């Protein structure tokens, strides 16, 4: 079992989109049992599955972490895996999590009890260096950072990697799974975007993934319809890119057997 976090302290770079579609690809093409965990009070991932962020105000991922609710009381079954939803109530929950004597291991300890049920746990984090981001990283085996090819996103990446490296002192097994570009198309010849990606690749070497996610109108359309990109438009650039990204993640970071299983599937 692997726990993966999608994190970046900047918003709008594709964390939620990537968590949803990579997790879905793992389920659809590798026959994996996947648990999605939404740790953002904005509940973007929860809404991508068609639920309101008010539906679970008293029974969300925060209440599970704090043991106010059992896993069975909170978890939702979907066509592509299970979901621990988020709600606006998570804002109040964060203060209780932070003041807990087991912080920042709250989520890790909570997931330890149910992780045997899944092959992958996929965590969507808020766009900040917050309590939620901290407990997500501590609970993770690998974290992946979507990077939009613009200057502010590039600056945010450096700050975030510094933050994550500090956590490695208490979580020596935590690894950067990779950084990957989103909303990026080198064929458009935007000089700044291309230079930023080249610079990041040079600094991170093999930790910068080869696959990038192109700007694609089908992705927000799919989310508006509460669907993953593979269900909404399997022939779109978004579906092709997220399929390739998931293959690369498995090839570089997971087991050989799982990679072979994924490659044997057809889209």
From TrEMBL:
Q: Which domain of life is it from?
A: Bacteria
Keyword Hydrolase on entry? yes
Q: What are its E.C. numbers? A: 3.6.-.-
Keywords in UniProt for this one? Hydrolase
What's the top EC group for this one?
A: hydrolase
| One example GO MF annotation | hydrolase activity
A single Pfam family it belongs to is AAA_31
Q: Which InterPro entries match?
A: AAA_dom, DNA_Partitioning_ATPase, P-loop_NTPase
Q: By its UniProt entry, which CDD domains does this protein fall under?
A: ParAB_family
Q: Where is the AAA domain?
A: 1-167
What's the name of the protein?
Sporulation initiation inhibitor protein Soj
Q: Which organism is it from?
A: Emticicia aquatica
Lineage start: Bacteria, Pseudomonadati, Bacteroidota, Cytophagia, Cytophagales
Q: What gene is it encoded by?
A: soj_3
């Amino acid at each position: 079992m692997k726990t993966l976090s999608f994190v970046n302290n900047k918003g709008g770079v594709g964390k939620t989109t990537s968590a949803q579609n990579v997790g879905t690809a793992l389920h659809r093409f590798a026959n994996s049992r996947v648990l999605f965990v939404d740790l953002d009070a904005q509940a973007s991932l929860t809404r991508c599955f068609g639920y309101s962020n008010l539906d679970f105000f008293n029974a969300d991922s925060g209440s599970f972490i704090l043991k106010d609710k059992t896993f069975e009381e909170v978890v939702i079954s979907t066509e592509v895996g299970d979901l621990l939803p988020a709600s606006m109530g998570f804002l109040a929950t964060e203060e209780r999590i932070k003041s807990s004597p087991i912080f920042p291991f709250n989520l890790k300890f909570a997931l330890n009890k149910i992780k045997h049920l899944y092959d992958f746990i996929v965590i969507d984090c808020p766009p900040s260096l917050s309590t939620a981001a901290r407990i997500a990283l501590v609970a993770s085996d690998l974290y992946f950072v979507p990077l939009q090819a613009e200057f502010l996103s590039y600056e945010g990446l450096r700050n975030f990697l510094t933050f994550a490296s500090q956590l490695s002192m208490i979580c020596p097994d935590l690894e950067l799974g990779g950084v990957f570009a989103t909303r990026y198309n080198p064929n458009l010849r935007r000089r700044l975007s291309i230079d930023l990606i080249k610079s990041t690749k040079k600094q991170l070497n093999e930790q910068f993934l080869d696959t990038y996610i192109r700007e694609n109108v089908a992705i927000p359309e799919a989310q508006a319809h509460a669907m993953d990109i593979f269900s909404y438009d399997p022939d779109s650039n978004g579906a092709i890119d997220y399929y390739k990204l998931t293959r690369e993640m498995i090839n570089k970071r997971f087991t050989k057997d799982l990679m072979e299983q994924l490659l044997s599937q057809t889209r």
